[in-house]
């Protein structure tokens, strides 16, 4: 692990993910991304010579990968455990940030891309969502849920949790995640049936 005082590529990426989760991509300049990561602007350009889009793409991959690792680990105990961990992660993020941060993957996904261009950060966001859905669907299929139903339920989980996370920020309350958690868990238990 790098010393806290030494700017590292990973620290810049993690800082960028955090800032994007708070302000969105379009509202964060490369200078602000560097400042938030407590890294010199020169170091940021050294590690990311292509600028803001390169940092943002890496930040989305970093955040997406962190969530995927958590899901993969928790899904070993079953789909309901994975769902609870996924919900708990986002609940923790919004509460710990005093409702100022959400999901950097969603933040990048909802911003308008330049005309006639698909930025790499947006493609990375799509990949992150697809990975989370795949992990959930695979866990459901492994417990006997039909493939189409598993895919649909996995998409529902990701979409509902991401939307509820945004709602929590707006309402400054975890109530949206609590309500979604109850409904998603009930849907998952029904899909798993008595053997789930």
Q: Kindly report how far apart the N and C termini lie.
A: 40 Å
Average pLDDT level:
92
Structural class, from helix and strand content?
A: mainly alpha
User: Which segments are poorly predicted (pLDDT under 50) over 5 or more consecutive residues?
Assistant: 1-6
Q: Can you walk me through this structure?
A:
The protein is mostly helical and 196 residues long. Helices cover 73% and strands 0% of the residues. It has helices spanning 9-23, 30-36, 41-47, 52-75, 79-96, 104-110, 120-142, 147-171, 175-192.
Compact summary:
The chain has 196 residues and is an all-alpha fold. It has helices spanning 9-23, 30-36, 41-47, 52-75, 79-96, 104-110, 120-142, 147-171, 175-192.
Topology:
Elements: H1 9-23, H2 30-36, H3 41-47, H4 52-75, H5 79-96, H6 104-110, H7 120-142, H8 147-171, H9 175-192
Helix pairs in contact: 1-2, 1-4, 1-6, 4-5, 4-7, 5-8, 5-9, 6-7, 7-8, 8-9
């Amino acid at each position: 692990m790098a010393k806290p005082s030494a700017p590292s590529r990973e620290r810049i990426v993690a800082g960028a993910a955090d800032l994007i989760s708070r302000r969105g991509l379009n509202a964060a300049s490369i200078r602000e991304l560097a400042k938030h990561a407590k890294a010199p602007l020169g170091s940021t350009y050294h590690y990311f010579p292509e600028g803001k889009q390169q940092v943002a793409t890496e930040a989305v991959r970093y955040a997406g990968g962190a969530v995927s690792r958590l899901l993969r680990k928790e899904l070993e105990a079953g789909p309901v455990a994975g769902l609870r961990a996924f919900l708990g992660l986002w609940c923790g993020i919004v509460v710990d940030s005093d409702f100022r941060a959400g999901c950097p993957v969603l933040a990048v996904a909802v911003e308008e891309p330049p005309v006639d261009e698909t930025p790499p950060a947006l493609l990375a966001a799509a990949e992150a969502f697809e990975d989370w859905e795949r992990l959930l669907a695979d866990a459901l299929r492994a417990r006997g849920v039909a493939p189409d139903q598993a895919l649909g339920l996995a998409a529902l989980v990701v979409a509902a949790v991401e939307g509820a996370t945004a709602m929590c920020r707006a309402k400054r309350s975890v109530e949206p995640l609590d309500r979604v958690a109850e409904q998603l868990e009930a849907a998952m238990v029904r899909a798993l049936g008595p053997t789930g």
